[in-house]
Amino acid sequence: MPLRLEQLPAQLKRGLAPVYLFGGEEPLLLQECRDQVIAAARAQGFEERQLLEVERGFAWDSLGEASGAPSLFASRKIVDLRLPTGKPGQAGAKALNAWAAEPDPDVLLMVSCASWDAGSRKAKWAQNLEQAGVRVDIWKIRPEELPGWIQARMQRAGLRPEREAVMVLADRLEGNLLAAQQEIDKLALSKGEGDITADDVLEAVADSSRFDAFLLVERIMEGNLADGLRVASGLRRTGVPIFLVSGALIRALRTVEAYRLAMRDGQPERTVFRQLNVWQSRQPALRDAARRLNGKRLADAWSRLAEIDRQGKGRAFGDPWHSLDHLVTRLCV
User: Fold this and answer.
1) Domain boundaries of the chain, sorted by first residue
2) What are all long-range contacts of 254-260, with beta carbons under 8 Å and residues at least 24 apart?
3) Does residue 65 or residue 100 have the better pLDDT?
4) Are residues 114 and 84 in contact, defined by beta-carbon separation less than 8 angstroms?
């Protein structure tokens, strides 16, 4: 049975397996699995690492050669095989099955797959590698799990974040775990151990230009037309993709719509804020936006966002940034 991600450290403490198979679409977590195995292997004398990247035309004979060739630097080595598609093909499956049948005690094979669908998980080669060693399936962090993941990572770095600080990161980084970890590392370096507020996070993650999609959403929620147009202009000038901006607006407007409907149905506001992950400092702006943007105006916004998407893809006439300016104006007044 595959291990869960959090079970890998305990397994490594019990002893190295001859084969490790990692599959999942989270680059950060995939790399951390590899790093853990490499550190444990080096502690046991595996001083050399040979990296094999499986691309079109990859010669699978090189895998067998990696096991049979004597090392120039060490008696034991790690073969780090990267299989991005999770599909080795017939030649690759044959080579992996052969390795699983007779692992080399002086060569640790580590296979990592960035794509890991049901077909790959059920493939015979994957099952054989699992039987020969250890397999870890890496699942994506769900949106409702992200705040807890971020908080745990911040605490591991010696930070004591307030809930709003966690939610700022979760909201701004949109599930990009690698970017989240980079921002946490940046906070740890700049602030040191201790309490972290939402303002600390906003200061740390702000782009050098100070014009980001997150800031544009804030200005629109506040109904601040002048600053909204200024930020939109800055986004265009600094080369931010229009799809990133429209995506941030879509998420914000969905929150406004969900809040409006919940209030209309008589749900307790405190419960609604908690369900929507709206931290305290953003609650007044959300109330104001919900009063300003009725159902008709939100429907118009969805239509204009769809048009911006088509313009950005070249499927509709017009400049998507000009359309964005018109949308910002309609949402702020």
Assistant:
1) 5-138, 143-205, 213-332
2) 255/286, 256/221, 256/286, 256/289, 256/290, 256/293, 256/298, 257/298, 259/286, 259/290, 260/290, 260/293, 260/294, 260/295, 260/298
3) 100
4) yes
pLDDT given for residue 175 in this prediction: 75
Fold for domain 5-138? Answer: Rossmann fold (3.40.50)
Sequence-distant (≥ 6) Cβ neighbours of residue 192 within 8 angstroms: 158
Q: Does residue 146 carry a pLDDT above 60?
A: yes
Is the pLDDT at 159 greater than 90, yes or no?
yes
In this structure, are residues 250 and 216 in contact, taking their beta carbons and an 8 Å threshold? no
- Evaluate if residue 141 carries a pLDDT over 50: yes
Q: Which residue is it, tokens 């790690």?
A: 78
What one-character DSSP code corresponds to residue 144?
G
Q: CATH second-level architecture of 143-205? A: Orthogonal Bundle (1.10)
SS3 137: strand
pTM of the model: 0.65
Which pLDDT band, with edges at 50, 70 and 90, does 210 fall under?
very low
The reply to whether CATH 1.20.272.10 applies to domain 213-332 is yes
- Nearest CA to 320 out of 331, 312, 332 is that of 312
